[in-house]
Amino acid sequence: MELILYFSISFISAGLTQYLGIKFKNNFCKSSALVSLMFFILFSILPYDGNTFSKIAFGASFIGMSNLVYPFHIRILLSSLIFSICFQVLFKYYGELGGALGFSAFISLFFAVTLFRASKILHLQVTKKINSTK
Rounded to an integer, what distance in angstroms lies between the CA atom of residue 72 and that of residue 49? Predict the structure, then answer.
């Protein structure tokens, strides 16, 4: 249940950061700050753990700043899922370690981009093999 909540917050945060960055004509720093502030205010009002959820939103906004594809694209979805898992694991053991949010965002983007490139290579190899048998 916790992972689903972390994933949904990170996906919305990354997608909104990307969307607002495009809307503000590629000013992703402003959009990241705006999304982080919005989530901080929202979770300060609601009776939830605002500190943890604000950290998730801020860390996931790194994904939105770094991902130069369309907002709410499948790559942002996959990166947000990996970020949620990394956040849950890293902050359990290394909660006070500096740079853990950026590191989690880097790891999630790295794996998402690697998976997409590997799938494109496999797709090209399969289509070449199919075309060569014709």
Answer: 25
Residue the block writes with tokens 């965002």: 105
Q: What is the arithmetic mean of pLDDT over 32-60?
A: 87
- How buried is 114 (Cβ within 10 angstroms: 0-12 exposed, 13-18 middle, 19+ buried)? exposed
Q: How far apart are CA 47 and CA 1, in angstroms?
A: 17
Total-model pTM: 0.81
Structure tokens at 57: 């939103």
Q: What are phi and psi of 24, to 5 degrees?
A: -85, 20
pLDDT for position 84: 92
Q: Residues of the chain with pLDDT > 70: what percent?
A: 92
Exposed / middle / buried, residue 26 (Cβ in 10 Å: 0-12, 13-18, 19+): exposed
Number of neighbours of residue 115 by Cβ within 10 angstroms: 14
